[in-house]
Amino acid sequence: MEIQVSSRRIAKILVAAILVLGFLSMLTGYYRMKMALVFNVGAELNIPTWYSSFILFTCSMLLGIIAVCEKQAGKRYAKHWSALSVVFLLLSIDEIAALHERMGAIVQNIFKTSILHELSWTAPMAVIVAFFVFAFAGFTLNLPAKTRRLFMLSAVLYLGGALVLEAVGGLWRAGHGEGNRVYTLMMTCEECLGEMLGITVFIYALASYIGDNIGLVSFRFLGKQQEPLPPDTHTQDDASADTSVKAVHN
């Protein structure tokens, strides 16, 4: 069985989901509806949070697939793909568990001023980002030009939302509080136009990379008495099943 996956179609569906979530967040927040917390993109443990965790987990799975294929092909940067897969898995878990909030609390205990209190999460995040920029410089430069451009665009969108817009929102919150429409708009832009859109661009980049450089990914489900076959061997019998996933662009 072969399943064709269109990277463009996936991106369009994800963008549509972001627009819907952003609209519902703005609508319920602007009019102070009872369902505001359920759709508030700036809140925790609600629908937007689970959606963000899901797309981050999708990135992790795609990165894992690429890592396995690159390793089988003997490529130089297979370990970098694996490391990114683990990073995005941790980001997916963090989105649900809000571990970054706890990291921020530690910084808050060290710096008691109100400004650093609001920027408590962005400061350690900036240090982590700087480390990854240095560690993955060679990997990034070795990527195909199209993939490299998409990776950089997704990073600008995601980090622009996670660091810059969140810092601006934190400063606004320190002076004006959260119960105002300006803050609601800022949080919507941060989460939807920044982080969620950045992740969507990254998913499109990964799916396109698979389509351009790998093409066909096969999953073989073995029976109890079967041994794994070499990567280039494809057979099917009563006790096993082969599923092929092919990435396309239309």
Describe the structure.
The structure is a single chain. The chain is mainly α and 250 residues long. The chain has one domain (7-214). Helix content is 71%, strand content 8%. The protein has ten helices and three strands, in the order E-H-H-H-H-H-H-H-H-H-H-E-E. It has helices spanning 7-30, 36-39, 47-72, 78-97, 99-110, 114-118, 122-135, 137-142, 145-176, 181-214, and strands at residues 2-6, 216-221, 241-248. The chain has a three-stranded mixed sheet. Helix 9 (145-176) runs antiparallel to helix 10 (181-214). The radius of gyration is 21 Å and the shape is globular. It starts with a strand and ends with a strand. The model is unreliable at 235-240 (pLDDT under 50).
Q: What is the string of helix and strand elements?
A: EHHHHHHHHHHEE
**Strand order in space, largest sheet:** 1-3-2
- Give the tally of structural domains: 1
Total count of helical runs of at least 4 residues: 10
Helix content: over 70%
* Radius of gyration, taken over Cα atoms and rounded to an integer in Å: 21 Å
Helix and strand composition category: mainly alpha
Shape: globular
Give the overall average pLDDT: 81
How is the main sheet built? 3 strands, mixed
pLDDT < 50 runs, ≥5 residues: 235-240
How many DSSP E strands? 3
User: Distance N terminus to C terminus?
Assistant: 20 Å
Percentage beta strand: 5-15%
Q: How would you summarize the topology of this molecule?
A:
Elements: E1 2-6, H1 7-30, H2 36-39, H3 47-72, H4 78-97, H5 99-110, H6 114-118, H7 122-135, H8 137-142, H9 145-176, H10 181-214, E2 216-221, E3 241-248
Parallel strand pairs: 1-3
Antiparallel strand pairs: 2-3
Helix pairs in contact: 1-10, 3-4, 3-10, 7-9, 9-10
